[in-house]
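We treat protein structure as text, and this decision shapes the records that our systems exchange. The remainder of this section carries one protein's record, kept here as part of the documentation:
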Amino acid sequence: MINVTTPRALILLLLASSACAGGAAPSGAFSPTFPDNRSEDVAGVLTRLSAANAPSPRVAVGLTSTPSLYAYDLEAGRELWSVPVGAPVSAPMLAGELVLLHEPEGVVARGLRDGRTRFTIPDSAMHLVGADGEGALSVFVLSTGAGVGARSEVVVADAGSITWRRSYEQALGSPALAGGLIFLPWATQNLSVLDGRTGDELARLRSTDAVVSEARRLGGRVYYGRSGFFLLDAEAVSGSRESAHFASPNVGDLPGSPALDPDPYRPSPSATSAVHKIRLAWRPSAAGTGLEDSLAYFVFYRLIFALEAEGGALRWVSSLPADALDSVASEGGLWVATADGSVRFFDASDGREHSPQETGHAVVAMTLPRDASPPPGRGEGEVRPLAEQLLVAAQNTDARLVPARSLAVSRLASLEQPAATESLLALCDDRRLPPPVRAAACEGLAARDNGAEFILAALRRHANFLDQTEPPPVGPLARAAANMHQTEAVVLLLGQLRDPATPASDLAGLALALAELGERSAAEPLLDFLRMYHADAPDEPTRAGLAAAASAVVRLLGSASQEELSALADDPLCQPAVALAIRESLSSLDTPATETTDDAATTDDAADPAPEASQTPQLPAHVTTSMVSRVLAPVQAQLLACLSADSTHPASARLVIVLEGDGAVRMFSTTPASLQRCIEPLVRAQTFPGNRSDSRQQVTYTLRRAR
């Protein structure tokens, strides 16, 4: 036998070569017996972390459609390099002095300063989860994602060369690197702290009530979590949000369910995925219990909403010239990279934009440094009123933005200033808008209780072919005028009633507003309208308008309307649906008589009980708004409390209740939608009357705070 002794240096060289060539990584696992949330372990980590404050290079990387990858120095304002790349599998990532891009052959690591390839790692059917770097030290994670048979790999490099790799039989999250330590999330609730040089586990933290999928190094501190972030400090050993320093935004539901970053436990989105364009960008404060500048930034393609971290009140909204591809919250504002290759910064206080840096490339993906400091100075330009900012956002012509444009309209409707009424009117009056956006604006306009001058001015306008003017949105305007008790609007509304150009869909709202305004002088014009069209109602909106007109006449004239309306209902030429609606309106006149009879039952004449059938209350022909008001009276104070508790502080809410024939609530919705969770249980707990025809019907009720 020949004994061959291989020099130790040669063995190390062979191992390194195998790693660089994509050889199998040594297997590793997190020991089930390693103690978690141990104070002394965390104290040692914090000691090492206190010496770490290496700033991230202020370099952005972009990916063009050709495809090519380039780096741009934000500090110097110049391009560092550009190289052709293979078809990208995901967006590029920054890892200290390395740029990582998942390409068909695997994850390619290039130098941040020169773009030269340092090494390539085969992906082994895993996706690139996340990466970070501190100085020359870099770390990145590959994973299959969570689920049965999950597997992952950690790769660590120093000065552009792999120092160690380790595979795990768990789903790993996105890592952070600080003080030579690797902070590695795994299995949705754990954070292990590894020595960056050896891979040894030094400490472990386990969250008991929050998902852990990402770690971040920000300003020399480390945070970890998912929808909310723990500050890694001595209190983190509690594992609980209540006892630790924990920060998360509370801004309510937003379109697209935006997150801070893509979920590392799911397959990585492609470089061009909409996930990168719909984000909720925020940064934990230094104290770890709130958000930097008390703001979270909702980015939806080309719109940015700056929302108060507690409650979601809107501070400002801004529009972008191109799609947002990456968004990073910083101290004092928001960094945004856009598809035209620009890098922009918006001040937290008022949304003013600094002069953008133009990288000179149109891009499909761009990645910004996660801990970039804000540019010097203040943003430029005039700060427009919030109502005007929201109007501009709602009028954006990009069809992809409809959910965010509708959000802008709902926030506009929540503003108390009369200028908001003017903006809502402009949107409701624009028939070119997508139906959801225009409908939201019209609903908001109908609920307004200020800005009467704009309402009256709009009602004075009539369609004119020569002047190329169209009729105003009469229905919402009429409801708003009634909300404001503007009796001056009665003459204007009657003018719109007589105008053949008034859309049939607006007639019902117009008639009901006249009834609510209570001017008896409106009764005769309404009767004229019924006389003219009771035999000629070509569509459902016109029939609904005639029914509302009949109801309005009864409310205005009471029993004095009975003879005239009965004659119209009995006219052989009267359309059956219209005749039925008139008779149903007249049936409400029977209510006072019934009440009088009930009162008389207390006299001696009531000694003999009436037949049992006569004691059963007669069902109404249909459930009216006034009936709904009586049903909800016992919970009125609680309903108004829901308005006050909503973060947007709406002045009113529109409740749409769909009732079955027996009075059971089939469906329920509110505008704004944010109130539904509070209001719906209160409404469903009440007992509503049925109707004589045992048919389903929809009732609209407006809940309004006292002025």
Notes: The domain at 620-704 is CATH 3.30.1150 (Fusion Protein Consisting Of Minor Coat Protein, Glycine Rich Linker, Tola, And A His Tag; Chain: A; Domain 2).
